[in-house]
């Protein structure tokens, strides 16, 4: 079982790596310090990554940026950060990567709690999360060759309290173990079209 893990060095990516690295061959990908270089905001870069890596059984993404700011101050350009990175970046992994995924393989994307439980300054991130959820549910009914697709929607991780804690007042942080298990279920299980909420 070969897994291409995009965003492997990040907080969520590291949780996925730790959970699966004993069972699965993992190829790490990100803009720096990974086995393969990729910038998901560039379709050309995504295509180059897949050409380099070749056939895999699973693709998982834990990458995607968004601008955090008040709606009445947000510029269209700032909003496009989430569109180009978290939303289209992850969706382009499907569109450009599908032919590299073996029969009965899987795709797992990352969304997040902000689409269900709003906080200030997070509308752009929530937009991207909701778009991914809708795309995943629709794509699941038509992906070819038994390929499955799911997304994992974590709340704030315990490992991210220092970074995001002040924004997430009253949210119960979740363990990296639980987030890793949701990815395990998606990658090594049999379900498709699922939303795994780690709230
Ligand atoms: N942490 C949380 O508590 C939490 C909770 C719910 C949802 N989320 C969501 O989950 C995603 C990952 O969060 P995180 O906290 O794990 O982020 P993180 O620690 O900043 O890690 C992001 C990872 O993605 C890579 N990356 C970033 N931009 C990229 C790009 N354009 N192309 C390719 N790789 C890229 C980074 O490596 P390089 O910089 O080297 O490219 C890094 O490996 C985000 O969308 C975030 O909103 C996070």
TrEMBL record:
<dbReference type="InterPro" id="IPR036291">
    <property type="entry name" value="NAD(P)-bd_dom_sf"/>
</dbReference>
<comment type="similarity">
    <text>Belongs to the short-chain dehydrogenases/reductases (SDR) family.</text>
</comment>
<dbReference type="GO" id="GO:0016491">
    <property type="term" value="F:oxidoreductase activity"/>
</dbReference>
<dbReference type="InterPro" id="IPR002347">
    <property type="entry name" value="SDR_fam"/>
</dbReference>
<dbReference type="Pfam" id="PF13561">
    <property type="entry name" value="adh_short_C2"/>
</dbReference>
<dbReference type="InterPro" id="IPR051122">
    <property type="entry name" value="SDR_DHRS6-like"/>
</dbReference>
<protein>
    <submittedName>
        <fullName>Short chain dehydrogenase</fullName>
    </submittedName>
</protein>
<keyword id="KW-0560">Oxidoreductase</keyword>
């Amino acid at each position: 079982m070969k897994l291409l893990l995009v965003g492997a060095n990040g907080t969520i990516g590291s949780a996925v790596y730790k959970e699966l690295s004993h069972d699965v061959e993992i190829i790490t990908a990100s803009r720096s310090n990974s086995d393969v270089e990729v910038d998901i905001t560039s379709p050309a870069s995504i295509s180059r990554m897949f050409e380099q890596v070749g056939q895999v059984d699973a693709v998982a993404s834990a990458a995607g940026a968004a601008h955090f700011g008040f709606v009445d101050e947000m510029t269209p350009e700032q909003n496009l950060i989430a569109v180009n990175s978290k939303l289209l970046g992850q969706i382009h992994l499907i569109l450009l990567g599908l032919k590299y995924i073996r029969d009965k393989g899987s795709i797992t994307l990352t969304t997040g709690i902000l689409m269900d439980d709003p906080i200030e300054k997070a509308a752009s991130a929530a937009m991207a999360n909701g778009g991914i959820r809708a795309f995943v549910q629709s794509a699941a009914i038509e992906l070819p060759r038994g390929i499955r697709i799911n997304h994992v929607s974590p709340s704030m991780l315990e490992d991210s309290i220092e970074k995001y804690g002040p924004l997430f007042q009253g949210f119960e942080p979740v363990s990296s173990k639980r987030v890793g298990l949701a990815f395990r279920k998606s990658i090594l299980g049999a379900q498709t079209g699922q939303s795994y909420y780690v709230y």
